[in-house]
Write a structure and sequence with these properties.
alpha/beta
């Protein structure tokens, strides 16, 4: 089942073309990574998919509904959430209050003051559940601004998860943290997604160990166009894609061009799906 789809999306900033006819499909159960060199159009594409940027032309649908220019509130109600590359926590709130903001929004009680949170058992339960999944249960009373960077990243993503989305888009959730913390963060995200029943993940990431280790499918962008859309094995084996996107020589051996499609190439076994 297709959850999120972009068709022939173009985005111009003046005479500069940031996206040039990009088409993308995300199906239920998929972990899709978007890669590409700086300036390839990755963040612009995610901004278009999440309504932050209105495309010059093209179509974006979520669960069959047109979501071009949709507000975060509308997308959250439809079942889509996003985390950003830069940590966007509220420095004046505690960890528990930060998670409660998302819980209140999901429950339709975003107008209620924080003074009522202590008496709201449903919100408290939602906060406790998400905090436990992300290893933040013992930090609920701590000021968010005092967390180490790795925990700030987890809190930022946990806030998006607290909306209980069907699809979550994450822009470099491991940037700015140590190599050891990256693995911890990714394992936490995938396990939380499984337990919460999140149906698909879209990831923008520069760390290729993360991309190849977790993705079912990789979409490679270059100069605003889809250079390849294929499984990790097909991407890794395509010398042209590896050289263009990764800037390194491909692994020696016979290669086949990666397929520009929205599904794994025929004849190749389907990859293990992290969300299943």
């Amino acid at each position: 089942m297709t959850l999120l789809e972009a068709v022939d999306v173009r985005k111009f900033y003046g005479e500069t073309c940031a996206l040039d006819g990009v088409s993308l499909r995300v199906d239920a159960g998929e972990f899709v990574s978007i890669i590409g060199p700086n300036g390839a159009g990755k963040t612009t594409l995610v901004n278009v998919l999440t309504g932050l940027t209105v495309p010059t032309s093209g179509r974006v649908t979520f669960k069959g509904v047109d979501v071009v220019g949709a507000t975060p509130v509308r997308l959250a109600r439809l079942g889509m959430a996003r985390s950003f590359q830069l940590v966007t926590i509220f420095p004046g709130l505690s960890v528990g209050e930060t998670l409660a903001v998302a819980a209140l929004a999901r429950l339709g009680r975003s107008a209620r003051p924080f003074t009522a949170l202590a008496r709201d058992l449903e919100v408290r339960a939602a906060v406790d559940d998400v905090a436990a999944l992300f290893g933040l249960a013992d930090k609920l009373g701590r000021a968010a601004r005092t967390l180490p960077q790795g925990d700030k990243k987890l809190l930022d993503v946990a806030s998006a998860f607290a909306l209980h989305p069907d699809v979550i888009l994450m822009d470099e959730p491991t940037s700015g943290v140590s190599t050891a913390d990256k693995t911890v963060i990714m394992e936490t995200l995938v396990q939380a997604a499984r337990r919460m029943g999140i149906r698909a993940i879209v990831l923008v990431e520069h760390d290729m160990d993360i991309v190849f280790g977790y993705s079912d499918r990789i979409v490679a962008l270059h100069q605003g166009r889809v250079l390849a859309d294929a499984t990790p094995a097909a991407i890794r084996a395509d010398a042209a894609v590896v050289a263009t996107v990764l800037g390194i020589a491909a692994v020696p051996g016979p290669t086949q061009p990666a397929t520009v499609s929205n599904s794994p190439p025929t004849g190749e076994p389907a990859p293990r799906t992290p969300l299943q």
